[in-house]
Amino acid sequence: MSMYAIRKRYGVPAKRGGRILYINKWGDKLPGRITISDGFRLRIRLDGVREAGLFHPTYNLTYL
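Above: the chain's sequence. Below: its structure in token form.
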């Protein structure tokens, strides 16, 4: 799916290259950047991490 489909389905401002804050289960706020969409999920590379992870567009993400 495209970023447009994710924006429309979940009502989030997801864009390739967009900055986010991910809040993990310990409450740490980890900044990162959206790299691409993968189905109805986002590939996000957190700052300081080599590989991009797969994230749900609405789960513990804050769009900057």
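Residues 45 and 52 are 4 Å apart (CA to CA).
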